[in-house]
């Protein structure tokens, strides 16, 4: 399966919203709780420093996306943050790895010096394996830092990568 990661276009928005909302509704990985609609989705994705989509070239089907933006402002504005979403049914095909690698290159291109993840949920084994493989550094554990959809709390593990 050949995958291309490219900047999103307005025609991508409906599928992007579907993929993003699926992760939000699962309630086990993204901190957001708000569901995107056509307007809020466009506004959200346009507000990022970069939004990339992963397209399966043979079928022209979107299989994932990511957002990249500053992690903070001012004196910490050189640190970036990102979120990745792979469509259910497409997971386990190394699409997430392609998204992260594209994001690293794009963050460097945009002048960021660090890529930081604030809240990798400890039960997200696939993400933890990937970030370790790619050389991200774990910063410790924040006990009960993520409120799961089922009402329980899970630890989060912040990570960083020097660009």
Q: What attributes characterize this protein structure?
A:
4 helices, alpha+beta, Aminopeptidase, single chain, 163 residues, globular, 29% helix, eight-stranded mixed beta sheet
Largest sheet: 8 strands, mixed
Low-confidence stretches: none
How many helices? The count is 4
Shape: globular
CATH topology: Aminopeptidase
CATH superfamily: Gcn5-related N-acetyltransferase (GNAT)
What proportion of the residues form beta strands (DSSP E)?
Answer: 25-35%
The CATH first-level class comes to: Alpha Beta
Rg, please? 15 Å
Proportion of helical residues: 25-40%
Strands, count: 8
Q: Compute the number of structural domains.
A: 1
Give the SSE order as H and E letters: EHHEEEHEHEEE
Overall description:
It is a single chain. Strands 1, 2, 3, 4, 5, 6, 7 and 8 form an 8-stranded mixed β-sheet that branches. It is globular and about 40 Å long. The chain has 4 helices and 8 strands. The mean pLDDT is 97. The protein has helices at 13-26, 38-46, 95-109, 125-133; strands at residues 3-7, 50-56, 61-70, 79-86, 114-121, 137-138, 142-147, 153-162. Helix 3 links the parallel strand 4 and strand 5. With 163 residues, it is of the alpha+beta class. The chain has a single domain (3-117), classed as Gcn5-related N-acetyltransferase (GNAT) (Aminopeptidase, 3-Layer(aba) Sandwich). Helices cover 29% and strands 34% of the residues.
């Amino acid at each position: 399966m050949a995958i291309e990661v490219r900047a999103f276009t307005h025609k991508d928005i409906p599928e992007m919203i579907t993929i993003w909302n699926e992760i939000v509704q699962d309630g086990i990985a993204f901190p957001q709780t708000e569901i995107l609609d056509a307007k809020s989705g466009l506004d959200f994705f346009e507000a990022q420093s970069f939004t990339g989509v992963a397209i399966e070239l043979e079928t022209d089907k979107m299989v994932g996306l990511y957002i990249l933006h500053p992690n903070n402002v001012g004196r910490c504005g050189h640190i970036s943050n990102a979120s990745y979403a792979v469509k259910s049914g497409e997971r386990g095909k190394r699409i997430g790895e392609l998204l992260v690698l594209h994001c690293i290159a794009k963050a460097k291109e945009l002048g960021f010096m660090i890529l930081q993840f604030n809240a990798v949920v400890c039960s997200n084994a696939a993400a933890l394996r990937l970030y370790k493989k790619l050389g991200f550094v774990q910063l410790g554990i924040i006990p009960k830092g993520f409120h799961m959809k089922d009402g329980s709390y899970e630890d989060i593990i912040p990570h960083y990568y020097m660009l």
